[in-house]
TrEMBL record:
Domain DinB-like positions: 19-150
A Pfam family of this chain: FGE-sulfatase
InterPro entries assigned to the protein according to its UniProt record, in alphabetical order: CTDL_fold, DinB-like, DinB/YfiT-like, EgtB, EgtB_Actinobacteria, Sulfatase_Mod_Factor_Kinase, SUMF_dom, SUMF_sf
Functional description taken from the UniProt entry: Catalyzes the oxidative sulfurization of hercynine (N-alpha,N-alpha,N-alpha-trimethyl-L-histidine) into hercynyl-gamma-L-glutamyl-L-cysteine sulfoxide, a step in the biosynthesis pathway of ergothioneine.
EC id: 1.14.99.50
Keywords: Iron, Metal-binding, Monooxygenase, Oxidoreductase
Pathway assigned to this chain's UniProt record: Amino-acid biosynthesis; ergothioneine biosynthesis
Domain Sulfatase-modifying factor enzyme-like, residue spans: 177-435
UniProt cross-references to Gene3D superfamilies, sorted A to Z: dinb family like domain, paralog of FGE (formylglycine-generating enzyme)
Top EC class for this record: oxidoreductase
Annotated source species: Allokutzneria oryzae
Protein name, entry field: Hercynine oxygenase
Region: Disordered, residue numbers: 311-334
Cofactor needs: Fe(2+)
Length: 443
């Protein structure tokens, strides 16, 4: 990493402090929305009690920013074990002697006061961890990632709605081509220059990708309903072996949170039930369902390299952008990110976020399943700890790209990589299809 001269450290400190505060405002909003009983309760065995997430955010901040970067004594070393994600499964966390909501709030405030002193005074050079304020960026992303996890918990919770947000923008009445050709050739995948990129996004490397067709939009609820009405859930030939096995065992029939009402489908969205919106990207489907849909449509899921090339490659300059629209950070015109809205926007709603080839909504709205296992890029080095990425490498996890309406811009970029088990549906995941050109189609 390059060393930031002392005089350029002030804006970095200010940015780190502002981003930490922005993340905390969201953590507070997500936990202040519920009473103590709802904060300590388990809403789904797949999720932690919300109050565990809050204290875990504080504990990670204490470990990295207060103790390690700041060199300060422990605030509460007695609770490290309780909030170590590797020590207790999510399902077993409600039974732990966790800090009560009031204590958890006090704890995270106390840690944050120390962090703010550290961000003001610690030298931002001399150690990889502090160059470009990386450790602060890492903890901002950690808190924002848990804020998305807490939003997922809110969606799993039953009972009257407590979260409200304005409706996303509506699509412009322009008709998008269904798919575009992404030309054959190498492109730069990953990054070695993005200051707050996490270890699994590094280093930048060249990847050769054959020409392929990419859909210009994620698969919509309307399209997905056609798959359901055409018997998609009852035709084993559309599913892989493990996909069909899971479909049978879990008795899958529709996306999570959908239910039949006479001749229409309804969806529960954070406690508000309404008709499924046909133009909206489908969300809450597993990798297996995505794969079955793609086969039904005569297509396939993109690989992770194809997805990133579609999202970043600029055919004119030959370089990879930070985002589909360019190098500027996402704003409300480019992408549905940051919990500004509590659902994906109709396809076609973000023309300003299109890639050079005209592919839309790659960033925001719904995470997109891609057909690649989690692996390290050539030259991968775990940094600063193996438990962020490396311990998850292998065939058990499939990748998700692009972020969703619940993901903050601080934890989303063209290179950002997310992963989960292929059976998971509680995450805000959808997908888009790709296709290998047939004989003669390339002219
Ligand atoms: C990158 C979203 C898979 O939530 O398990 C949070 C992020 N890592 N705390 C997760 C994370 C440690 C991680 N994901
Ligand atoms: Fe965590």
């Amino acid at each position: 990493m390059t060393t930031v001269p002392h005089m350029e450290q002030e804006p970095l400190r200010a940015k780190a402090a502002a981003e930490l505060e922005r993340a905390r405002a969201r953590s507070s909003a997500l936990t202040d929305a519920l009473d103590d009983d709802e904060l300590v309760r388990q809403h789904s065995p797949l999720m932690s009690p919300l109050i565990w997430d809050l204290a875990h955010i504080g504990n990670q901040e204490e470990l990295w920013l207060v103790r390690d970067v700041g060199g300060l004594p422990a605030v509460r070393s007695d609770i490290d074990e309780l909030y170590d994600a590797f020590k207790h499964s999510r399902a077993s966390r409600p039974a732990l002697p966790l800090l009560k909501p009031g204590e958890a709030r006090q704890y995270v405030d106390q840690v944050r006061r120390k962090t703010m002193d550290v961000v003001d005074r610690v030298p931002l050079s001399g150690r990889g961890l502090v160059e470009n304020a990386f450790a602060f960026g890492m903890l901002v992303q950690h808190e924002q990632q848990h804020d998305e996890t807490m939003l997922i918990t809110h969606q799993t919770r039953k009972g009257p709605a407590v979260l409200y947000a304005p409706e996303p923008p509506r699509a412009e009445k322009t008709v998008l081509p269904q798919e575009v050709l992404v030309p054959d050739g190498p492109f730069t995948m990953g990054t070695s220059t993005e200051p707050w990129a996490l270890d699994n996004e590094r280093p930048a490397h060249q990847v050769r990708v054959d020409a392929f067709f990419m859909d210009t939009a994620p698969v919509t609820c309307g399209q997905y309903q056609e798959f359901i009405s055409d018997g998609g859930y009852d035709r084993p030939e559309l599913w892989t072996g493990s996909g069909w096995e899971h479909r049978t065992k879990a008795n899958l029939r529709a996306p999570l949170y959908w239910r039949r009402d006479g001749d229409r489908w309804l969806r529960d969205c954070f406690g508000v039930v309404g008709p499924v919106r046909e133009a909206e990207p489908v969300v809450h489907v597993s990798f297996h369902e995505a794969q079955a849909y793609a086969r039904w449509a005569g297509k396939r899921l993109p690989t992770e390299a194809e997805w990133e090339k579609a999202a970043r490659f600029d055919p004119e300059s030959g370089r990879s952008r930070r985002f589909p629209w360019g190098d500027e950070d996402p704003g409300p015109r480019q992408a549905n990110l940051g919990q500004r809205h509590l659902r994906p926007a109709e396809v076609g709603s973000y023309p300003a976020g299109a890639s050079p080839l005209g592919i839309q909504q790659l960033i925001g709205d719904v995470w997109e399943w891609v057909d690649t296992d989690f692996h390290g890029y050539p030259g991968f080095t775990a940094f600063p700890y193996r438990e962020y990425s490396e311990v998850f490498f292998g065939p058990d996890y499939k990748m998700l790209r692009g972020g969703c309406f619940g993901t903050d811009a601080a934890a989303c970029r063209g290179t950002f990589r997310n992963w989960d088990y292929p059976i998971r549906r509680q995450i805000f995941a959808g997908f888009r299809c790709a296709r290998t050109p047939g004989g003669g189609e390339l002219g």
